[in-house]
Amino acid sequence: METKGILTLQFGHYSNCIGTHWWNIQEAGFEYNSSDPSEINHDVLYREGLTEKNQVTYTPRLLLVDLKGSLRTLSERGDLYEPLPDPCKEKSRVEWQPGHVEVQSTSQYEKNQFHKDLEDPEKAEQVAKMTYDFDKGVQVWSDFLYARFHPRTVNIVREYEHCNENTPFDAFPLGTSLWRTPAFEEDFADKIRNYVEECDHFQGFHMLSDSFTAFGGLASGCLEHLRDEYDRKSILVFPVIPSHFPTTNDCTTAQSVINDSVRTVNLALSFNQFATHSSMFVPLSTSTRSWRQAGPGRNFQYIDYDAISPYNTSAILATALETLTMKHRLRASSNFCLSDLAADLTLHGRKAVAASLRLPFAMRTGETLLDNLDQWQGPLTVAITPNCEIGNARMMQHVCIRGIPTTRLKKPVEKAGSQRELPAYKCCTVQEMFQMYLSFVTDATASHVTTVNKPINVRAPFPRIFDAKIGANGDLLPEGSSRYDNTAVEKIATVSGLHNCSEIGDMLESLHTETRRIRIPRLHQFTNEGGGLERDDFEECLDNLFALRENYEDNYVI
Amino acid sequence: MAISLLNPKAEVARAAQALAINISAAKGIQDVMKSNLGPKGTVKMLVSGAGDIKITKDGNVLLHEMQIQHPTASLIARASTAQDDMTGDGTTSTVLLIGELLKQADIYVAEGLHPRILTEGFDKAREKALEVLEKIKIPVEINKETLTDVCSTSLRTKVHPKLADVLTDVCVDAILSIKQDDKPVDLFMVELMEMQHKTETDTQLVKGLVLDHGTRHPDMPKSLKNCYILTCNVSMEYEKSEVNSGFFYKTAEEREKLVSAEREFIVQRVQKVINLKKQLCDGTDKTFVVINQKGIDPMSLDMLAKEGIMALRRAKRRNMERLALACGGVAMNSLDDLQESSLGYAGHVYEHVLGENKYTFVEDCRHPQSVTILMKGPNKHTLQQIKDAVRDGLRAVNNTIQDKCLIPGAGAFEVTANKELLAFKDTIKGKARLGVAAYAEALLVIPKTLAVNSGYDAQDTIVKLQEQSRLSAEPIGLDLASGEAINPKDRGIFDNYLVKKQIINSCSIIASNLLLVDEIMRAGMSSLKG
């Protein structure tokens, strides 16, 4: 069977947090000794490799970019292909006059308990069941990284430092000019080419980008390159925005206002680029509003999460990503690919698409899907695209359901009782039933449903954000009982959707309005040095956003 | 503003404080970099928090790796790395000289001299120094010997002499093979390829091209002799046109039909290549290689493999140009009018596999005007070190070809300029001469540091050199092996004219600018802490 490979690109720290959870979730779902092949074709996002010692490796087909100082205990090239060099041995290997070799080491970071256990062959098996205090201990994404990477995966920007106010990487033009340095235009582009070259049927790119910082500019530079070099491949972009900005309380009001403006301009400039060059882009955030300051977080039933912690919020977005991208990663859909997804969802030039999520999709033990949907009040999913409340008229949508097997669809005929009266009783698959459900709850919407039987694995290092009403197997516990404190939820069913709806126009309009109010000449980040942004470019970007917004207006098209 | 009117001292204090900040930053970064200057400087091994290692002696690399917090220091660092971007050498010298100019200026400023007057002197001194540079430059013939001298001088300050000699040969040969009479050399036509394998001294020049990928079909030949090379940028993979809907409307059969119709189009493309191969190679001992910038899917690979054609997909964009220069022929954007004249030739094309990495060598070209430096090393940090050195070596050679002249090395220029500037000082009226004196003194930091790094006394050495310099008409430099004065020309120690000129210009300007700073502001708001 032909595998249609996808290359994933992650730009920026929050993107990497989401990515880390995403790869963790996927690896938790690997089945090594199973007789029936998994529904998901992992080869789409992963690649098989060979070390020089002829050991087979299986690593994400991934390139990620972050700033200097953001890795802590993770080594840049990893130790999968060769052991980490020993400084003392290397020092003696250096051919130079003795006494003229100077070692400068930064203080070595101590690995956290999670990583220590992973390295210990006796404990490594148990890690998924252990309890670690990630909520307090996590500083950077590598702290909760389970997956292991290929040596070319991690790319560090040397020019800027993580969390250093003296060398902020905060404005879009800094990113675009960084792309034009040899480290990216040549080395990084070569790495992309290496990955694409080895795929027999390459279908396209997934790109996660911190578009509120200069990483938006870097991602845009990369996007233009991809369009140039791989013209017909699809590129699915996810601009991601955290639900909290650390500077809110930590600096003066004046500085905070400037930071808010800078972020908003970055987002506007990035969206403009994504609308031009991507096949489709889906802004993701767990807060209701993202321009300037982050608004209050979205509420998910049965989830109790800390909106300030990127470790928590990124995990929620990662489950959405894992579910949304299912359709073109399933074994069963070998002739469906990224370009089909994008072509259907971006009709009429509506390149921006909204996403939504229901996490967890919890049913009571013994309850059937038919009853659950019949009794469910309110919208099926919660929007995870900022400044966008998804209404009922959606024109086109793609919904993926994970973790509901056909056995839980409906009661058998002999026990059905009143269920038989319901029109949905004639549905024989989860897909049919959801299709029918969606046709009832939405107007004038073409829906497409994908189903996957296996639930998502949410073992450690996934955060413990599920409240006590959810049992270890992801079911809703009976009224009055609750899960023991020290047990973790292991798997969970989810529903996630991509929607082409008119409310995205509202999102674009609000971004346009917010950006229009900002006086760009007052933001020196955009005008000097990086040199990038001319006033006209900025005006053009605003006009483009406005034009894009108009694509969402015609209520009569279908 | 109101405060400064009431309290005139506030302004002065601020000015002096700003200057003190700049000077201390410049001194700080100078201290860090001092020990790497010259062939006897120290090698630094940098170990990151996670245990990654970097070994370097190159100032430019160090500045990129260092975590510089201070804004002035990072300004100096940027100016110095810009020096490297332009010329490929002289980063450490730039840092040292800026630091020393500020140090010397500090002495006069402390005695009440206005920085503005000092900078006037700096500017006069700069012009004079450039005159001296013109005077002592040595016009050279571009031949292997001269280029080897200058390249080796530069590389010996960056890597071990044994390795420096290997790399010097490689760099000089590379440039000489792609150089065409009087045309400027395009350094991009030297491909740098890494191979984690063997040891650093196995680094070699390949007179042809090495690609970092190989064939992707089990039956494809892995080695061919006497090959036609077709370079093209034409997709040979089936891609669905994006207009058809994936969710709806299409049944499996409809899809199949569509696929086979679109597929046929690609098959015909591939057939064109096969036809040409049959026409040219069948019945002869010639073989056929396709190198494509776009993709080739397994079905197309299969067709090509059956004909014994070796095909590579997704070649670097720049390799299209390089292949045309190395093998002849033209890179084709369409296969419509394919002719023998558009093909290149290589005597031997073969694949080399290292773990999961494949390399394809295109060798024995007739007149290669694009070559590859194949860098080898046992680990990543050694390879990186070689790569940095090779880049600088190539630039040193190329600078010489552009300048058509060289400057005697080993501190000779600095000693000579110091002598001339001290004489020049007396011809200047007014306090600006103090600036010239400071400049003359500052230049000596280069020979002084060279001496200290080699284990000699700075003052002893300078006195020795100045004495010799007074007696001799030729520029005098320092022999690091003996600590004695020598004529660098006799030892083949040369620096690039361009590098020195750039150092003089950028150091003077940056030092002057830093001197004239009288208030440090931060992010649009003035910060009292500085």
Count of discrete structural domains of chain B: 2
Main β-sheet of chain B, in a few words?
6 strands, mixed
Query: Portion of residues in helices of chain A?
Result: 25-40%
Distance between the termini of chain B: 17 Å
Principal-axis shape of chain A: globular
Provide the CATH architecture of the largest domain in chain A: 3-Layer(aba) Sandwich
Indicate the CATH topology of the largest domain in chain A.
Answer: Rossmann fold
Supply the CATH architecture of the largest domain in chain B.
Answer: Orthogonal Bundle
What do we call the CATH homologous superfamily of the largest domain in chain B?
A: GroEL-like equatorial domain
The number of helical runs of chain A is: 16
Strand content of chain B: 15-25%
Distance between the termini of chain A: 36 Å
- CATH topology of the largest domain in chain B, what is it called? GROEL, domain 1
Helix content percent band of chain B: 40-55%
Q: What is the number of beta strands of chain B?
A: 18
Q: In terms of per-residue confidence, which ranges of chain B show pLDDT below 50 for 5 or more consecutive residues?
A: 1-13, 523-530
Give the low-confidence spans of chain A: none
Q: Given this structure, which CATH class of the largest domain in chain B is correct?
A: Mainly Alpha
Structural classification of chain B: alpha+beta
**The number of domains of chain A:** 2
Which structural category do the helix and sheet elements of chain A fall into?
A: alpha/beta
Organism (chain B): Acanthoscelides obtectus
Keywords (chain B): ATP-binding, Chaperone, Cytoplasm, Nucleotide-binding
GO molecular function, one term (chain B): unfolded protein binding
Subcellular location (chain B): Cytoplasm
